[in-house]
Amino acid sequence: MCCILLCHMKGPSMKNLQVSVTEKPQSYPLYMGRGLFPLLAQHLSEKPLASRYAVITDSTVDALWAPQLLAALAERGLTAQKFVMPAGETYKTRETKQTLENQMLGAGLGRDTAVLALGGGVVGDVSGFVAATYMRGVPVIQIPTTTLAMADSSVGGKTGVDTPYGKNLIGAFHQPVAVYMDMDTLQTLDEKNYRAGLAEVAKHGLIQDITIVSRIEENLDLILRREPQVLEELLALSCQVKSRVVAEDDQERGLRQILNYGHTMGHAVEMLSHFDMIHGECVAVGMVYAAKLALRLGLCDRAWADRQRNVLEMLGLPVRIPEFMAPQEVIHLMKMDKKARDGQIRFVLSLEPGRVQYGVPVADEEIISCMKER
What we know:
The chain is of the alpha/beta class and 374 residues long. The protein folds into two domains: 6-247, Rossmann fold (3-Layer(aba) Sandwich); 261-372, Dehydroquinate synthase-like, alpha domain (Up-down Bundle), CATH 1.20.1090.10. It has helices at 37-46, 61-64, 66-75, 94-106, 121-133, 147-153, 191-207, 210-218, 220-224, 228-248, 263-272, 279-296, 302-314, 327-334, 364-372, and strands spanning 6-8, 15-21, 26-33, 52-58, 79-85, 113-119, 140-144, 158-163, 166-173, 178-182, 346-352, 355-361. The strands form three sheets. The protein has an eight-stranded mixed β-sheet, sandwiched between helices. Strands 8-9 form a two-stranded antiparallel sheet. The protein has a two-stranded antiparallel sheet with strand order 11-12. The longest helix has 21 residues, at 228-248. The radius of gyration is 20 Å and the shape is globular.
């Protein structure tokens, strides 16, 4: 079972959530609030993780937030060096990981190093994978700067890179030592990425906590205006869902598969778009078609399928597969998905609020018919 503690801390609008992973067992804190870089530096000065810190970020976040983080670390007398990867999903590759590792080796960083992953989901996944294998494993702290990374990738310890055969097919489970979610970083996020990340927030509501869906429906204007307090509360609910699931199954052998709701088709759509459609947008499309499949198979009612589509449309997310994508191409890539077995595509399906089935085999013909519906 998961034990997650939500504590109100001193300071302006700050939360501390405790994420527990029982299989190891291990737990780590998740801090939420505003202006958290000095707090992170304070924590590292009081309880050092390493002698030196590798701040891994991307070319977009570098200009926006890296100077503030490095300044906070320097003020506490901590030694940190920055490593910058190109921004974008197309650089979530083994080659990028190798380049970062070579740069760190060239800088003389040894086992007394910890990684600070400053950025969105791509930075978090690649940095976490670097940390998992560098010198056979060094600590990592996740500092997500996007809604997608805050809602999903920074919590749970999944790390990895994409390949020409599919997304996230090479990677490792490597839990962070801590996660720091600074709501201020969301103010510099472009609209497309901001909304796309909200798809993962909605996903946690659709698979387990319907309160999240209701909060989106009731506070849509404040959410789209990025009101920090509303976002903090919404993301706290979202992270609690992920924490509960990860605590029960941190290696994705069973229950954790429900976190892949919308991803089976979403990953295929993402690759076929050559990443012009970003991850959250593709997951939104995947959830809508998963709802359609559940309806076709008699596993959910029309009202629940419609509500899922409606909340995603409210967030301004796409809900249809682009017309240029051939169903057979989508099917081919879905069969490369990690959850496929013996060439059989398997889906996560939401049957009703709080009730989900995973590993549901669905025939190719059924999926194609669903995709042909407009």
